[in-house]
Design brief:
The structure is a single chain. The protein is an all-alpha fold. It has one domain (about 1-505). It is about 85% helix and about 0% strand.
């Protein structure tokens, strides 16, 4: 029954994702065209600053998801309701902290440190305040979103995602027909409207579908509150490091190169997000099963889910990213025309390679959450130390005169080290079968080497014709599929796949 649920949920999420990916790429192109490179860069750096001060939210998101999934495995609605209410109050507190930090340190950094053209400083401040409101809405939405995912109601999750994308497309349509107003400010206000409407839909659905579990009942439970805060406390360290390495990297880039390069980073991030959305939806469908199988002490199933989710997530993003890695210049030219900022091609390649590592990491990270506080403590301390090296490394490289691409190469190196530690740490706790674990590493390693080879052979200055692009892209994908089928799968996986295909052919 669980496998059928996973398959159904994955289907819903992929319907959502296919539409969202196309829409997202279109939206990015239109926003860049309408706003221009400078305002597009301003928007990205301002959003990065707001996200930086929302680091507490990421911590509580993971904590909320984990505890709701664990309590859901007990089939006790009262226990789930207790976790929901504690999470709701925690997120109200996070909103307060974010407001205080954003209106003090954040404002000072925006006006005195960031490299923003003086004529656009007033607009940047207005957008900053609107972006803060959007961030607050996203924070309070977390407990409701966690409830939907924990109950595996992916059909609603998928349809609401489609509706949100449709609203963003409407916002772009409105923006493109405005002549006199400041388009940067208008765009931020339109996104605020979308965010408020989506939250309203989340709220109404969860209150109706899970009334008993989402009923507001703020009874004191110091023991559970303490347990969740202790867990999130160690999660906080990892979240600070993550936000610091991503948004901090964007800010350091701004200090040395200005908003134009921030625009290039923003475009690269959009491409990466579009590709990674395939994997993210895949992992979202598996995450509840990962946590619940561990909570139910079904360890054999848990181990298979960990390695399987990690490997198939990696293969999925590999298949999608291979043409992007090799034809980055051609695809960006087709997408953006003459509006491609400097360094964008190489930045796209670097960010996607980093996402390949992230795709492998998802199931190991979720397993660490499932195991509990003692695991999270050591796990996050080590990973945070490694991750925080990204920003000072980038700063050092920039002072030596290296271009922005090298910062992301440095990030890739730190991510490799982080993944090596994840593999070591979770294997130590879970005790995988040695043969299966070594097979997993070899399978992924061969495919990864092929993708790095594509980057080495790619020409980021050449624009391919349509015939050349289609022919060579098909050739690359055939080679990649062959590698995955005959080298990237173990004997059991190949036996299952080919026997299933043989049965279908015979029918």
């Amino acid at each position: 029954m669980s496998n059928k649920t996973i398959a159904k949920n994955t289907l819903f999420l992929y319907i959502r994702m296919l539409f969202n990916m196309g829409a997202m790429l279109y939206i990015s192109r239109e926003v860049l065209r309408v706003l221009g490179v400078e305002d597009f860069g301003i928007y990205n750096i301002v959003m990065s600053l707001v996200v930086f001060f929302s680091f507490l939210n990421g911590t509580m998101t993971a904590t909320t998801q984990r505890f709701i999934n664990v309590e859901k495995a007990s089939n006790d609605s009262k226990r789930v309701n207790k976790v929901f209410n504690i999470s709701f109050l925690n997120h109200l507190f996070i909103m307060l902290v974010v407001v205080v930090l954003a209106e003090t340190v954040g404002l000072w950094f925006l006006n005195h440190k960031l490299n923003i053209p003086a004529p656009r400083m007033n607009a940047a401040n207005i957008v900053y305040q609107v972006a803060l409101l959007i961030a607050l809405v996203e924070i309070i939405k977390v407990p409701f979103n966690a409830m939907i995912v924990a109950h595996e109601r992916m059909s609603f999750y998928a349809w609401l995602g489609l509706a949100e994308t449709g609203l963003k497309l409407t916002a772009i349509f409105i923006l493109s027909h405005i002549e006199n107003d400041d388009k940067l400010i208008t765009y931020s206000l339109l996104l605020l409207g979308v965010s408020l409407l989506v939250f309203t839909l989340y709220f109404r659905f969860t209150r109706k579908a899970f009334h008993a579990e989402t009923r507001f009942n703020f009874e004191k439970d110091l023991s559970k509150t303490k347990e969740m805060m202790h867990f999130s406390g160690w999660m906080l360290m990892g979240q600070v490091a993550y936000v610091g390495s991503t948004q901090g990297l964007n800010m350091v880039t701004n200090l040395f190169f200005g908003v134009t390069v921030n625009a290039a980073v923003g475009i690269a991030t959009q491409v990466d997000t579009a590709v990674y959305s395939f994997v993210n939806n895949f992992q979202v469908a598996f995450n509840p099963q990962l946590v619940q199988s561990y909570a139910a002490k079904d360890y054999d199933r848990n181990k298979k889910l960990i390695l399987g989710t990690s490997k198939y997530s990696f293969y999925l993003i590999a298949i999608l990213s291979a043409p992007v890695l090799y034809f980055s210049h051609t695809l960006l030219t087709l997408w953006l025309g003459d509006h491609v900022p400097q360094y964008t091609e190489k930045l796209v390649q670097a960010t996607i390679v980093c996402s390949l590592i992230s795709a492998m990491a998802g199931s190991f990270w979720m397993t660490a959450l499932a195991i509990g506080s003692q695991t999270i403590k050591q796990y996050n301390i080590i990973l945070a130390i490694i991750d925080l090296c990204t920003v000072p490394l980038a700063y050092y490289l920039f002072t030596l005169g290296y271009n922005p691409v090298f910062a992301f190469i440095g990030k890739f190196c730190t991510m490799i080290i982080m993944q090596a530690y994840r593999l070591y740490f979770i294997n130590k706790k879970i005790k995988f079968n040695r043969k299966e674990f070594v097979s997993y590493l070899l399978n992924i390693g061969i495919v990864f080497a092929f993708l790095l080879g594509l980057i080495y052979l790619s020409d980021t200055q050449r624009t391919y014709s349509l015939a050349e692009f289609v022919g060579e892209a098909v050739f690359i994908e055939v080679i990649l599929f062959t590698l995955i089928l005959f080298i990237g799968l173990n004997k059991a996986e190949k036996s299952f796949l080919f026997s299933d295909l043989l049965k279908r052919v015979r029918k």
